[in-house]
Amino acid sequence: MNPVKIGLLGLGTVGGGTATVLKRNAEEIARRAGRGIIVDYAATLEPERAAELGLEGLRTTDDAFAVVNDPDIAIVVELIGGYSPAKELVLQAIENGKHVVTANKALIAVHGNEIFAKAQEKGVMVAFEAGIAGGIPIIKALREGLAANKIEWLAGIINGTGNFILTEMRDKGRDFEDVLAEAQALGYAEADPTFDVEGIDAAHKLSILSSIAFGIPLQFEKTYTEGITKITRDDVVYAAELGYNIKHLGIARRTPLGIEQRVHPTMIPKKRLIANVDGVMNAVLVYGDAVGPTLYYGAGAGDEPTASAVVADIIDVVRVLTTDPENRVPHLAFQPDALSDLPILPIDAIETAYYLRLCAKNHAGVLAEVTKILGEGEISIKAFIQKEPEHSTDNVDIILLTHRIKEGNMNTALTKIEALDVICGDAVRIRVESL
């Protein structure tokens, strides 16, 4: 049987890793896929990359549409990233009857509904395992391995940059800006780190995981998103004193009213496995009604970890090239005509516990005023820390850990607390999950 010819859009970090893995493990991959797989054509602005990667005979071009429109290419692997021209290239490949593999979580999160509908119409596959958590096969686990389960919730550390920053702040007592600069120097963070530190990258990934877990359309725009830029060294220390680690989590949960879909800093008890996932590593914790909690851990980025997922998707596509489209695994795990219309809940409607850090004047009766407001909002206190000031005129930090309460109730209480004359500045709030 003739080998399947692959067209790569991009020969950068992941594209180069994909080509390398396909070449190095060609024999093993052919045994798994049932036929050979070769990279035949690549779009790149650096044609010398092919020689650097040892890809003799590889056709290259600076026109990505030339690859997409080439009749010999059966599978287009999109590794350019971003929204455009990735979207146009993917839709053109589908229009040409080609299968698509992509590592582009932003594209899938924002335009996935349109792309999957087009793929369904044309009878082709769009595979995107590499878009989430690098080499961790979390999409396959949710879509296939846990198919017997009703997924109750999932929580993930799905951005390695943010996890590296929070780990360094905890372990070495460093400030956010200091660690961010190192992350940029090490190549973990981009020159513009907004997508990582403000949670946008994690929100892209979470919206995809949520759709697959609960059988709902992709709704990135409804994901509550909060970054880690306001987390201070003091918050990390106070969390540790209370028995928690701070992680930047993506959380999706099924409730009777709808789906929680949120990304924000979260305090997790230190004894939880996911609380001890450090550095640039990723992890996703999934709770299914039949299996209970399962944890998926591994490298969330890098050339070969991500290439591992890209090549696995290519093998899956090759295995089903001749399969009736109606009998393939659905893109979002559930049959397209069986997606649910469960709403995504606004952040005010979610219920969680809270860590609060209040800067207060060193006056008698401050705590009584604060607890009175919390009591009026039916918010009960679980733990309390007050640091003694170095001088009698200094302000003091008051740390409160609450029991679970609706976010809307907490918002109302914080508005009243921040209006008190004895409170200086805005309260710091971190949500707390026991998982």
Question: What would a concise description of this structure say?
Answer:
The protein is of the alpha/beta class and 435 residues long. Helices cover 36% and strands 24% of the residues.
Count structural domains: 3
Mean pLDDT: 94
CATH superfamily of the largest domain: NAD(P)-binding Rossmann-like Domain
- Write down the CATH topology of the largest domain: Rossmann fold
Inertia-based shape: elongated
Termini separation comes to: 49 Å
Proportion of β residues? 15-25%
Q: Major beta sheet, specifics?
A: 11 strands, mixed
Query: Helicity range of the residues?
Result: 25-40%
State the CATH architecture of the largest domain. 3-Layer(aba) Sandwich
Q: Helices, strands, pairings?
A:
Layout: E1 4-9, H1 13-24, H2 26-33, E2 37-43, H3 48-52, E3 59-61, H4 64-68, E4 75-78, H5 86-95, E5 99-102, H6 105-122, E6 126-127, H7 138-145, E7 151-157, H8 160-172, H9 176-185, H10 194-197, H11 200-214, E8 224-225, H12 233-241, E9 244-255, E10 258-269, E11 281-288, E12 292-299, H13 303-319, E13 351-360, H14 366-376, E14 381-386, E15 396-402, E16 405-406, H15 407-418, E17 428-432
Parallel strand pairs: 1-2, 1-4, 2-3, 4-5, 5-6, 8-10, 10-17
Antiparallel strand pairs: 7-9, 7-11, 9-10, 11-12, 13-15, 13-16, 13-17, 14-15
